[in-house]
Amino acid sequence: MDNAQKAQVLINALPYIKKYFDKTIVIKYGGNAMINDSLKEAVMRDVVLLHSVGVKVVLVHGGGPEINETLDKMNIKSKFINGLRYTDKDTAEVVRMVLAGKVNKGLVSYINGIDGNAIGLCGIDGNLLEVTKKQDDGVDYGFVGEIVNVNTKAVIDCLNGGYVPVIATIASDKEGNVYNINADTAAACIAAQLKAENLIMLTDTVGLLKDKDDPSTLIPKVYVSDVPFLKKQGIISGGMIPKIDGCVEAVRRGVKQATIIDGRIEHSILIEMLSNEGIGTLFLQE
Fold first, then answer.
1. Which of these, 23, 85, 88, 281, is most buried using a 10 Å CB contact count?
2. Within 10 A of 120 (CB to CB), how many other CB atoms are there?
3. Spatial distance between the Cα atoms of 152 and 138, rounded to a whole number of angstroms
4. Residue 224 CB: number of other CB atoms within 10 A?
5. DSSP assignment letter at 30
C-alpha cells in the first residue's frame, strides 16, 4: 500500500471516527481471539487505536480456555448447563484467581505495552457488579451470579481519566461469596448502564447462522422482537443464548446497537466500526 492509498483509508474512516468520537463502546473479548497470539495482538491494537482517536472503550473479558486449563491441572471437571459453567465453591476460587489475576493483569500489561493506557477492574471493585445466586426454574448453577445492579462510577472515573477499563467478570455477594458471571451477560449489563453507543461481542463464529454448520447462512440483521421466534426454531441455542440475550437486553435498555462479530478475523473490530462493510449479526430495535 502506497502513501496515497494509506491516506484514502484514513479519509474513508473519518466519518466513522467522528461518529464514535467521545462515545462509549463496550467490547466483550473472548473465544479464540484470547488464545491466538496474532488475533490477540490485533484486538489489543484495535482497542488502543480507538482509544487514541477519542473513543471511550470498555473491555469486558472472559477467560474460559485459561479456566479450563487450570481446572484440568487441579483435576476439577468442567460442566456446562444451558451454555453456562456450573461453578462450585472450589471452581469459583479458581475463576477468581484466573480471571482477576492472570487474565486481567495480562491484558492490562499488553495494552500498556503497546502505548495504551489501561486499568484492570473486576466486578468486586467499587461494587461494580452486585449479584445474587442465579435461579432458573429450579436449575442449580452453583456459584453463578445473577446481576441485580451495576455501579459504573469506577468505570466512568477510568474513562474520564483517559484510561481503558479492562473488566474481569467475577463478583461477590454481601456475605463475601465469590460468583462467576457470564461475560456476555456482564458486558451487556455494563453497556446498558453506560448507555453505550455500541456493544460488540467477539465470538468464534461469523455471527448468528440459520444453519450452525454453514457460515453462508449468516443472518446479518435481527430485530429484538424476532429473537423468541428464532429460539423456538432452534436457530438460537446452546452457547449463543447468553450472547444474544445480552444483546437484546442491552438494546432494550438504551444501547444504540449490539453486534456479534467473528473474533477470528484480524482487526474485526475496526472493520465493524470504521467501514461501511460491517460484519457479523447486528441487533436493533424496530
1. 281
2. 24
3. 31
4. 18
5. -
Q: Residue holding cell 453462508?
A: 216
pLDDT 10s digits, 121-155? 999 999 999 999 888 777 888 899 999 999 999 99
Give how far Cα 188 sits from Cα of 2, 18, 238, 249, 271, Å.
40, 24, 18, 7, 21
pTM over 0.90: yes
**Tens digits of residue pLDDT in 53-76:** 999 999 999 888 888 889 889 888
Locus of grid cell 457479523: 280
**How far is C-alpha 225 from the chain's CA centre?**
22
Residue 62 φ/ψ, nearest 5 degrees: -100, -150
Question: Rounded to whole angstroms, how far apart are CA atoms 207 and 225?
Answer: 18
Cell of 203: 465470538
Q: Is 78:138 a contact under the CB 8 Å cutoff?
A: no
Q: Provide the sign of the torsion angle of the four alpha carbons 25, 185, 112, 272, taken in this order.
A: negative
Q: Which three three-digit cell numbers place residue 118?
A: 489501561
